[in-house]
Amino acid sequence: MTADDSQPDYPVLTAPAAGIPDVVTDERTLQRAADAIAAADGPVALDAERAAGYRYGGRAYLVQLRREGAGTFLIDPIALPDLTPLQDAIGDAEWVLHAATQDLPCLAEVGLHPHTLFDTELGSRLAGLPRVGLAAVVEHYLGITLAKEHSAVDWSTRPLPEPWLTYAALDVEVLVDVRDRLRADLQEQGKLDWALQDFAALTSFAGPPQRTDPWRRTSGMHRIKDKRAIAMVRELWLTRDAIAQETDTAPGRILPDATIVELANRAPRDVAALRHAADPLRGTARSRARIAERGLTRYADRWLDAIARVGSMRQEQLPPATVPSDAPPPQRAWSDRNPKAAARLGFVRDGLTVFAEQHQVPLENLLTPDTLRRVLWTPPEPFNDKTIRHQLASLGARPWQIDIVTPLLLEAAAVAPVTDE
Question: Residue 171: which domain range?
Answer without folding.
Answer: 12-202
